[in-house]
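A student in our group prepared the protein record below, which I am reviewing. Here is the record exactly as it was handed to me.
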Amino acid sequence: MLRALIFDFDGLIIDTESAIYESWRELYASHGQVLTIEQWSQCVGTDFSSVYDPKLDLEQLTGLTFDWVAMDRQLYDRVSVLLDGYDALPGVRERLQEARELGLPCSIASSSPLSWVSKHVENLGLRDYFANISTRDHVERIKPHPDLFLDAAQKLDVGTDEVIVFEDSLNGLKAARAAGIRCVVVPGPTTRHLDFSGAWQHLASLDSTSVSDFALMLK
């Protein structure tokens, strides 16, 4: 029986992933380098150190050493400009409202910091839809490890077979599978080219189905 829902944040609730990629693509271009979507997608849903590090990559390509504290501030400011006026992705508000009406509590499980997630969730007016938020501030390991999803499920007081995860990244899918939780993949512009074999369901958008459909599948 379906008792709860867990949502990824970046690229699933709001398309921060495209804005973040664009800011990095611009940085690479300003130094005469190309950052492809295939390169970037390796770190979507996780941090830079575990799979692909664009900071190290750019330094190796240019032979330069950057002040990454200052550069991170510039990138953050650029992402904020790009995200200005962005709304939640199609279907997000509808699925959250539907879950509320069905009495299914929802959680966010994100590899991003709590400050980042909370800021945008508040700006979108969605905070009241979530019983709790699990981020890199709450666990030892982020995606593709299962810790975030296990933490979210524990806070929701549900078993891993009683909850489904909505994800847009391959690292998120790997984390859900490692946690033993069914994963509904909803890829975005930065991840559509990836192979999501092993996903429980694969959707083009969250407005293409309903929570009731998933609940029926688990009866």
Observations:
- The chain has a mean pLDDT of 95.
- The first strand starts at residue 4 and ends at 7.
